[in-house]
Amino acid sequence: MFSFVRRGFVLRRIMSTKFFNNGLGNTLFDKLKGIASEMATFDRFLAVVGFFRSSGYFKLRKELGDISDIKILIGINIDDIFRKHNKALLMLADEDKAKEIYHNGFKEDIVNAQYAPEVEEGILQMCEDLVSGRLQMRIHATKNLHAKFYLCLPQNHSEHSDGWVIMGSSNISDSGLGIKQPPQYELNVAMKDFDDVKYCSDEFWTLWNEAVTLTAEDIEEYKKKTYLGYQPTPYELYIKVLIDTFGDQVEDDFSIQLPDGVKDLKYQKDAVIQGYQMLMQHNGLFLADVVGLGKTMIATMIAKRFVEANGKNTNILVVYPPALEDNWRNTFKLFGIYKKAQFVTNGSLSKVLEGKDNYKDKEEFDLIIVDEAHGFRSDSSGKYDELQKICKSPCMNMGLLKSSQKKVMLLSATPLNNRPDDLQNQLLLFQNSQSCTIDGVPNLKGFFSEHILDYKRLMRERDQRDVTAEVDKIYEQIRSKVIDKVTVRRTRNNILNDPDYKADIKSQGIIFPNILPPNELEYVMDSDTSNRFYETLKQLTDGKTEDNPEGKGLTYARYRAVEFLKPEYRNKYKNAVHIGQTLAAIYRVHMVKRLESSFYAFKKSLRTLLRITTDMIKMFDEDKVIIAPDLKVKDLQAKNIELDEIIEYAITKGYAAEDILFSADAFSSEFLEMLHHDREILEQLNADWAKENDDPKFDKFRENLTHKFFDKEINPSGKLVLFSESVDTLNYLYDRLTNEIGRTDVLMVTAANRNRLGQTIKENFDANFDSDSMRYNIIITSDVLAEGVNLHRSNVIVNYDSPWNATRLMQRIGRVNRIGSMAPNIYNYMFYPSQQGDKEIQLYKNALVKLQGFHSAFGEDAQIYSKEEIVKEFQMFDNNVKDSIDKKIALLREVRELYNSDRKLYHKIKSLPMRSRVMRDTGKHSGNSVIFVSSNVKTEFYLATSSGVEVIDFLEAVKYLKAKPGEQPVSFTNEGLHYKHVNSALNQYTTEYVEAADTSSINRTDLDKTSLEANKFLRTIKQITTDSELKSQCDVLMGYINEGIYAQLPRYLKTLSREYKNDRAKMKQDEYILQNRISELLGEYQTMNKEQRHDAQDISNPQIIISESFK
């Protein structure tokens, strides 16, 4: 009994020593180390492995000591490789192929090994051992070697000598040896029985004799193709960075057969190359060259190129403001792609979604072009939702490019003048928030959310202090991190600053006029008029609100009825308070704009506001108050229609009387008081303005019309363009210009007659049109002509009322600043009311600040600027963006010149191995390093100094890396610092991007409250239903919300959830209704699933592309 137990104990002990699993102290590395130190006759190490890491060899080599013979046989799974390439099986034993496969593995090993001096020493040691003959390596290419075994033998192995064989799952690599943390589970067994060892030894020699020899020359050759075997020059590293940054733009030798009469302009051709590459990489882009550089032409050329690449079944949808239709149709005809396109105005997208007017299904389009895309900057508008549904629907016909995702081109000269959220919304027409393709932005909404919050805070603070620098900083961040990567934008200065572009346009006789800063025309009011103007301004803006409880001015109560309904009546109006305040804010801005536009327009508006306020009081007197926003009750009352008739009319229109008709006591008492308060002020203002017969603004205009606007020095063509935001002001001006001054050459254009007058406008004001008619020399127009029309026979613009939005001003100037302009300068006149005293200046400033506040809170369409801000914005337009774009154009030019002049050197530099590095002695930047790290989602440059590692942008990195061809590298000194710098950069990259890109993270900062509420509602539906299809539909919608694909989907679900207030019993009762609603939503908001998309990729391991240290 005792003996059995004893033998059992021994057996257990042997078992525990024979097997090991890479646990702590029980690794393959420990075992080999033990054998090497204990086995006195250990002279030969023979290994058969599935794959081999040179970095692992180094660590093992140290432990093997002075043994004279190391043989490693590597099994390459060549069957699979050939199967993948569909090659014939007879090539399986091809010696060169086997070596090539090993070579690729060798390179990959070196790129993925830890960046450390000891790893590099190990790899070099391996090469030395091969040269000395101590190490021999062979590749077994005919068998797929799954076996891994290691023989530790004396010189002559016999029954009487020691010898070990270790067999199991471990390869020679850090993880196989068990030296990588955390350890990888392996299972190996060690045996020393002579028969076992001999059997494995015989097998080894059989396999060894069948294998392909790897020579020292082979390994030396392989090493040369890695960073350890080639020392680049500083110039080569500098060019390598340019090649990697500009990518396919360098070698893209795109050419297009241009139609007759179309100028071949280099800057346009480069824009086509750059834009096409962005379209391929990011599924979309902003085409944002400043007005007048030919965006329609560039977009059409990109579209033509896309059609050629994607094949004959490609379909394009062009979305545009109505005024631009002819321009698009004609340009597409010119380039021969008219039949590939359908055209739709930006207000008629529902026709595409509903299949009306012979439009194709949204899934049939492959490319969407959106002109004047800033019109889609608000994601709460219906047309935005419609466009997003079209852009995000999958492509039905995969063309030659094999993409199921639509491509989207957004054209706008002014994308950077919007608020941060406007930019985010436009980007989300071709990007998804969670799987964003933009370098370094793993989550788009996550990136924007902090900038949006900062911007809103600054807008609230801008009346207390100057926030300009901080706002600029926000935009600089957005521009450098996001917009630059998906935007083609050049200003005229960028083109003139590039010698090649400049020579090209000069040779073709194209002039870029010089846009002079705004000329201010200040009209002076006498003291009586001035008092009236500024006191009125105060009454218009100083109404009582939560933020202004002491306000005594107009409350615009007429527009706020829903806000003051008692709670029991108000709940049928969602957001009643917000609606009321928004309408009041909009009308407040409108009244101030009218006052600035012309006294005539303002007096008209004053009379209207008094009339509709009095009509509302009359409804109270009759105890019949109608609220029907769609009915235009004000207009019906203006036609003297009785209230009872209006109610009857409303009922015939389908309104229920109880939904639109309220008694006087349905409103809080303060509302009627506010109406009476407003009526009192309005009666006073109307009476006061009835005494105003002067018009100092028109007097100033008439004076300049006679002496300045038509001065031949300024205006050689004798044409003048005048813009006003108010049609009433235009009518007033037309009347005085024709009847009082007697001019017969004035053309007035408004939305009402624009289409009818298209030909007349071209004949008289378009320099590209073959006519020099002088029938009309003054065109006075509203902003209906601020987009998509050429007026460049004129070079003088008068803004009769200043647009409070620099974007609008640029659009207006763009009408006369176009290719084909003949005058050297463009003159831009703007009217401002005089502000003689501090009181007026303060009143004016306060009014603007209040209006800005309303604008920020309620998203009123035009951004409001003071005179100073307008001028600043205006100057920023052509100069601020200039620097970085100029530099990038010059750098692209430099690398293109190398590509064209020395193709061999270019390709040598392009294929420089990963991790290439150089030490320089420039007398500057001592002890610093620049590191370029990349993965499939992000490239980043780092500057490492004594104080740590910081991210720098591409242009900053270029300042350090720039080198001349003759500069030689110096030998590395202070290597420890270099390795520390590179690894610090790599660690920072991993923290910021690899970990941040983990989409499963619970802390989703990008999901707003609405999305979270929508998800909660969908989860609740899943819990109350047993219907598996409904459950899976909820999962799909939750996926869309989590990925940030659609803006209005979560809002719709939130509204739906509010109907149920988490009442599960009611939801269960309405399960069939919910099923239909969810099913409808899936039909409307349909997109491809994550697996179908190219961008649904995991982040790859970050790689060191190059590094450069300074002595």
Task: List low-pLDDT spans.
Answer: 1-16, 78-93, 854-862, 876-882, 999-1003, 1090-1097
Would you tell me the overall average pLDDT? 83
Cα end-to-end separation: 77 Å
The fraction of residues assigned to DSSP E strands is 5-15%
Evaluate the radius of gyration.
38 Å
Strand order of the largest sheet: 1-7-6-5-2-3-4-8
- Quick one: biggest sheet? 8 strands, mixed
What's the number of helices? 43
Report the structural category.
alpha/beta
Helix % is: 40-55%
Let me know the number of strands. 28
Shape: elongated
List keywords for this structure.
1111 residues, alpha/beta, single chain, eight-stranded mixed β-sheet, seven-stranded parallel β-sheet
Brief sketch in words of this structure:
By secondary structure, the protein is of the alpha/beta class. The protein has 43 helices and 28 strands. An eight-stranded mixed beta sheet has the order 1-7-6-5-2-3-4-8, sandwiched between helices. Strands 15, 16, 19, 20, 21, 22 and 23 form a seven-stranded parallel beta sheet that branches. Strands 11-10-12-13-9-14 form a six-stranded parallel beta sheet.
Describe this structure in words.
The protein has 43 helices and 28 strands. It has 1111 residues and is of the alpha/beta class. The strands form five sheets. An eight-stranded mixed sheet has the order 1-7-6-5-2-3-4-8, with helices on both faces. Strands 15, 16, 19, 20, 21, 22 and 23 form a seven-stranded parallel sheet that branches. Helix 15 (382-392) links the parallel strand 12 and strand 13 (407-411). Helix 39 packs antiparallel against helix 40. The N and C termini lie far apart (77 Å).
